[in-house]
From TrEMBL:
<dbReference type="InterPro" id="IPR037523">
    <property type="entry name" value="VOC_core"/>
</dbReference>
<dbReference type="GO" id="GO:0046491">
    <property type="term" value="P:L-methylmalonyl-CoA metabolic process"/>
</dbReference>
<feature type="domain" description="VOC">
    <location>
        <begin position="8"/>
        <end position="123"/>
    </location>
</feature>
<dbReference type="InterPro" id="IPR029068">
    <property type="entry name" value="Glyas_Bleomycin-R_OHBP_Dase"/>
</dbReference>
<protein>
    <submittedName>
        <fullName>Oxidoreductase</fullName>
    </submittedName>
</protein>
<dbReference type="GO" id="GO:0046872">
    <property type="term" value="F:metal ion binding"/>
</dbReference>
<dbReference type="GO" id="GO:0004493">
    <property type="term" value="F:methylmalonyl-CoA epimerase activity"/>
</dbReference>
<keyword id="KW-0479">Metal-binding</keyword>
<feature type="domain" description="VOC">
    <location>
        <begin position="141"/>
        <end position="259"/>
    </location>
</feature>
<dbReference type="Pfam" id="PF00903">
    <property type="entry name" value="Glyoxalase"/>
</dbReference>
<dbReference type="InterPro" id="IPR051785">
    <property type="entry name" value="MMCE/EMCE_epimerase"/>
</dbReference>
<dbReference type="InterPro" id="IPR004360">
    <property type="entry name" value="Glyas_Fos-R_dOase_dom"/>
</dbReference>
Length: 312
């Protein structure tokens, strides 16, 4: 593992054919807030997060992941990481410089091993945010992103070697082998997870709610609104977090969660969990069974943005 220059997950940017419909879902159903906007772009914030936005939406003919963005502690760390990646032969999309997105800052972009565009930035202005109140079923922050990979071992190695991620836990199957790797960049059990899939794509985005009551209220709110639920509510063993998975209007999986585990990195030893054991998928036993149908909904469409940087 390389020295850690990344501090946290900032935002994930999606391109969608129907921007208005996607924005309506994320604001009126999911509970995000439109913080900034311009023609063809919408920047959505989580009420409890200091990040300028946690999701950016872009109108496009192609559905794709535009960007996965991480924070760094300083401009010097941004420069050091860019130099290190360049030396290691990683393709830089942009050189370090001033960002033109809300909150400004200093950052750069590069392609990961499978062609996803990744951004690392520092000195982004802190957004005025608020404490989420008891019983309020809206996201506090973006919790984590899970990526489908056709080369998960290679993707895990890339994020460990180049970005300083560490393995927290692994899910395995007695016949299919290792299937998901939970990767951390700070004390949170995972900010990124890598899932073995048929092609590179978004597996899911996860949003943290205030607590168990707010998580259940949010889950119920979406069910009453007729949003399609894929899996949950339940509680995973790896990460010890709750889960309720839904489909957004473009077929992306999005999750409400809470109580993701914070670990002592000095003493943590990764586990290997057999997810055919029911308690690994759901400690509570309240969720619908994990089966091939449920799993296939998170394979998603082939990402059309691989090795093609977003236009903005």
């Amino acid at each position: 593992m390389t020295d850690r220059l990344i501090t946290h997950l900032r935002h994930v940017d999606l391109a969608v054919p129907d921007l208005a419909r996607q924005q309506d879902f994320f604001t009126n159903s999911w509970g995000l807030r439109t913080e900034h906007g311009e023609p063809g772009l919408s920047f959505l914030a989580a009420e409890g997060s200091p990040e300028q936005y946690v999701v950016r939406l872009r109108q496009s003919g192609d559905k794709r992941v535009d960007l996965v963005a991480f924070g760094a502690a300083s401009a010097a760390d941004v420069d050091a990481l860019a130099a290190r990646l360049g030396t290691d032969g990683v393709t830089l999309v942009t050189e370090p410089g001033t960002l033109q997105t809300p909150g400004g800052g200093y950052g750069f972009r590069f392609f990961d091993n499978e062609g996803r565009t990744v951004e690392v930035s520092a000195d982004v202005a802190v957004r005025a945010h608020r404490r989420i109140e008891e019983g309020e079923p809206v996201p506090v922050r973006l919790s984590h992103v899970v990526l489908n990979s056709a080369d998960p071992e290679g993707t895990r190695a890339f994020y460990e070697r180049h970005l300083g991620f560490a393995l927290s836990d692994t899910l395995t199957h007695p016949r299919m082998g290792d299937m998901m790797w939970f990767m951390r960049i700070n004390r949170w059990h995972h900010s990124v997870a890598i899932a073995r899939g048929p092609h590179p794509s978004l597996h899911h985005l996860s949003f943290e709610l205030r607590g168990l009551d707010e998580y259940m209220r949010g889950t119920g709110k979406l069910l009453r609104a007729g949003v399609e639920k894929i899996w949950g509510p339940g509680r995973h063993l790896a990460g010890n977090n709750t889960f309720s998975y839904f489909l957004d209007p473009h077929g992306n999986t999005v999750e409400y969660t809470t109580e993701l585990e914070e670990i002592d990195e000095d003493t943590w030893h990764p586990h290997v969990y057999d997810f055919t054991r029911p308690e690994v998928s759901d400690q509570w036993g309240t969720a619908n069974a994990m089966n091939e149908f449920v799993a296939s909904r998170s394979f998603n469409d082939v990402d059309k943005g691989l090795f093609v940087a977003p236009p903005v």
